[in-house]
């Protein structure tokens, strides 16, 4: 199977590499073209523009930073819309809001093409090991066609119905994740200030009812001030912002998520946006020092 792949950031690089390793023919494009080199060394071809990739491949996948990037790659000159049409599918796996997804879907449908949104739950390591959870919605026939690729990229694909539902599901999940990360950070500081060993806290948490891979994986690194990015904080803050907008549209009060969003914004203002989202821990430490 031949696929196009747009966006070779943390996620796109790992995902396109996985497709190559599993026998797919892959044509890649990235805004910063030099990031294609490593994929080429593993057998990928390169398209000079998104349009060139779509022209070559019947299915093109994208995973880009945010709504502005997702829209730009589709609507700008030499973008996806230039070449999409009958018999061609476009799958956007970026985390965006439902409105962005619907805008892209409508434009592609007007050209006779097929669209699926398919944001993913899971971070750098699940992307590398093909263990993502895929939250697809939109064109069911394109979903069925893409299942062999989804089976390589993830541990379970979900088909959630009309376009927008994948984006909404992803935003709900990441709203919970961002809120939990803030509570976790406060817990680590509370343990420390109460003269408990935070490593003991991690051990106890891991044996109880709220044990989870995020505490297990990130906790020890946070205690070493290691925020090497798996999921960049700027993207987590974008997800909180988009989830709060979804809450706004549906009149859902989310004071916990709103407070978590403020902490991520604070972290961005401290220049931590490109670090892992666990670096929000630094904002909690700051409060500790100022008291
Ligand atoms: N990292 C993670 O753990 C997860 C991330 N996600 C989501 O996946 C998406 C990608 O995340 P991730 O790979 O971590 O992000 P990165 O920041 O590592 O990569 C972002 C990608 O988007 C491209 N890009 C940014 N702006 C534009 C633009 N205006 N036009 C064209 N391309 C652009 C970048 O190109 P360039 O190289 O030129 O900058 C790069 O390829 C995000 O929506 C994120 O929320 C979802 C699940 C997990
Ligand atoms: O969006 C991030 C993730 O870990 O999932």
CATH-assigned fold name of the largest domain: Rossmann fold
Total helical segments: 13
Strand and helix order: EHEHEHEHEHEEHEHEHHHHHH
Shape: globular
Q: Any ligands, ions or cofactors bound here, and which?
A: NADPH dihydro-nicotinamide-adenine-dinucleotide phosphate, the ligand O=CC(=O)O
Number of domains: 2
**Terminal Cα separation, in Å?**
59 Å
Radius of gyration: 20 Å
Which residues form runs of ≥5 with pLDDT under 50?
Answer: none
What is the makeup of the main sheet? 9 strands, mixed
Structure classification: alpha/beta
CATH class of the largest domain: Alpha Beta
- Do you know the CATH architecture of the largest domain? 3-Layer(aba) Sandwich
What proportion strand?
A: 5-15%
**What is the typical, i.e. mean, pLDDT?**
97
The CATH superfamily of the largest domain appears as NAD(P)-binding Rossmann-like Domain
Total number of β-strand segments? 9
Query: What's the helical proportion of residues?
Result: 40-55%
Describe this structure in words.
With 291 residues, the chain is of the alpha/beta class. The chain has two domains: 2-162, Rossmann fold (3-Layer(aba) Sandwich), CATH 3.40.50; 168-290, N-(1-d-carboxylethyl)-l-norvaline Dehydrogenase, domain 2. It contains 13 helices and nine strands. The protein has helices at 10-21, 37-41, 50-56, 67-75, 98-110, 124-129, 140-153, 165-193, 198-207, 213-223, 233-249, 255-269, 281-290, and strands spanning 2-6, 25-29, 45-46, 59-62, 89-92, 114-117, 120-121, 132-138, 154-159. Helix 8 (165-193) crosses helix 12, helix 8 (165-193) runs parallel beside helix 13 and helix 9 (198-207) packs antiparallel against helix 10. The termini are far apart. Bound molecules: NADPH dihydro-nicotinamide-adenine-dinucleotide phosphate (NDP) and the ligand O=CC(=O)O. NADPH dihydro-nicotinamide-adenine-dinucleotide phosphate (NDP) is lined by residues 7-12, 30-32, 35, 63-66, 68-69, 72-73, 94-95, 120, 123-124, 230-232, 235.
């Amino acid at each position: 199977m031949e696929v196009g792949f747009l966006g070779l950031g943390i996620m796109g690089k790992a995902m396109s590499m996985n497709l190559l390793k599993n026998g797919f023919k892959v044509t890649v494009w990235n805004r910063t073209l030099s990031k294609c080199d490593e994929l080429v060394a593993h057998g990928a071809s390169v398209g000079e523009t998104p349009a060139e990739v779509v022209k070559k491949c019947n299915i093109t996948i994208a995973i880009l930073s945010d709504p502005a990037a997702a829209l730009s790659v589709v609507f700008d000159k030499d973008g996806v819309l230039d070449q999409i049409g009958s018999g061609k599918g476009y799958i956007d796996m970026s985390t965006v809001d439902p409105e962005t997804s619907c805008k892209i879907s409508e434009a592609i449908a007007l050209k006779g093409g097929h669209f699926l949104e398919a944001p993913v739950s899971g971070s750098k390591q699940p992307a590398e090991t093909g263990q993502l959870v895929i939250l697809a919605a939109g064109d069911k026939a394109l979903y069925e066609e893409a299942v062999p690729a989804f089976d390589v990229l993830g541990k379970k694909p979900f088909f959630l119905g009309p376009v927008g539902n994948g984006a909404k599901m992803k935003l709900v999940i990441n709203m919970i994740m961002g809120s939990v990360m803030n509570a976790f950070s406060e817990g680590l500081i509370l343990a420390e200030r109460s003269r408990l060993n935070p490593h003991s806290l991690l051990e106890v948490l891991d044996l109880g009812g709220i044990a989870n891979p995020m505490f297990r994986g990130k906790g020890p690194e946070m205690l070493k001030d290691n925020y090497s990015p798996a999921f960049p904080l700027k993207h987590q803050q974008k997800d909180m912002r988009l989830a709060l907008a979804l809450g706004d549209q549906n009149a859902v009060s989310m004071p916990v998520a709103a407070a978590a969003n403020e902490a991520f914004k604070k972290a961005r203002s401290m220049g931590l946006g490109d670090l892992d989202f666990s670096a929000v821990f630094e904002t909690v430490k700051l409060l500790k020092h100022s008291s």
